[in-house]
Amino acid sequence: MAQKEKIPVYSIGNLLQEPIPQAALQAEYFSAYLEKHYADLHRPHRHSFYHMVLFTSGEGTHTIDFDRFEVKPFQVYCMVPGQVHSWHFTAAVTGYVANFPDHFFRDFLFNPYYLERFPFFSGSSAESVFQLPAPLHEKVPALFEELIALAPDATASPDMNRVLLLQILLLMGNAIAGHPAKAIPEQKKMILHNLRRLIDVHYRSIRLPKEYADLLYITPNHLNALCRDLLGQTAGELIRNRVLLEAKRLLINENKTVAEIAYELNFQDNSYFNRFFKKYEGVTPDEFRKQFLK
Gene3D superfamilies this protein is in (predicted)? Predict the structure, then answer.
């Protein structure tokens, strides 16, 4: 069977339209970025890189994994590779954009999971968007200006880019951590990070919380208690929501049939997938697709 067209997945090389070095960072004014790529950005698409946008003015909406947000000044959007999103602007927008690959800090910090310490890079759309606190309205744009000014200098060390970007992430992370709902022990946060990572890898084939608890070397009761405490939902709901999210991502691809999507998500048959989807979304997969396209 011929390969069906999928949701577009853009790399930094696609956007720059040229070969890129391993340590590539793309930093631009958002207005210039939008002018070059609007034909692609207003349709649902994915990135193979981390994508961060700070708006300083403008109006419109941004949809991340089917959650819609109103664009506001000094609002930050942070997305991880694989999330599906699209932009719809109703007025001219200004701001900054930074794109960087998942290995950007790996050798620099000797920690492949460093970015997971930041809640805005959790992969959850609800945590991806936040308002930049007033004390950072000058500091963060100034760092973006330095990033953009450094970009044309081919002789500059990639570590300069890393240091500037890391300052931005730490400033934002500290601002969010400064107003926590409650302090979360590092051990609990690590278990949650590991659970989310495992679900992302195995959600097609592993659907039972007990199996994830075994992979994490904890009891199912401990896992459920932790998920309820930190997320307000059970481990089973977290797994189910990941399956539903991928189903919706696949359904917006018109060239895939519902039966093909059911098979790809490892459902026993198409009717079981239809019942599952309608139970939790309130509509059938076909109805969801028609509503989205409309």
Answer: Homeodomain-like (1.10.10.60), Jelly Rolls (2.60.120.10)
Contacts of 213 (CB under 8 A, 6+ apart): 219, 220, 222, 223, 235
User: Do residues 249 and 269 share a domain?
Assistant: yes
d(CA 124, CA 69): 13
* Predicted confidence (pLDDT) per residue in 51-101, tens digit: 999 999 999 999 999 899 999 999 999 999 989 998 889 999 999 999 999
Same domain membership, residue 258 and residue 232: yes
Checking if the pLDDT of 142 tops 50, the result is: yes
CA 56, CA 253: separation in Å to the nearest integer?
33
* CB distance 135 to 180 below 8 Å: no
Do residue 190 and residue 275 come from a single domain?
yes
Domain total in the chain? 2
What whole-number distance in Å separates Cα of residue 280 and Cα of residue 275? 9
Q: Are residues 173 and 197 in the same domain?
A: no
Please check whether residue 260 is in contact with residue 267, taking contact to mean a CB–CB distance below 8 angstroms.
Answer: no
Domain region containing 124? 9-177
Inside any domain, residue 145: yes
Report which of 53, 160, 152 is spatially closest to residue 104, judged by C-alpha positions.
160
> Which pTM does this prediction carry?
0.81
- How far is it, in rounded angstroms, from Cα 189 to Cα 184? 7
Q: Which residues contact 50 (CB under 8 A, 6 or more apart)?
A: 78, 79, 80, 81, 99, 100, 101, 102, 104, 115, 121
Confidence band for 257, pLDDT divided at 50, 70 and 90 = very high
Give domain status of residue 3, yes or no.
no
- Give the 3-state secondary structure of residue 219: coil
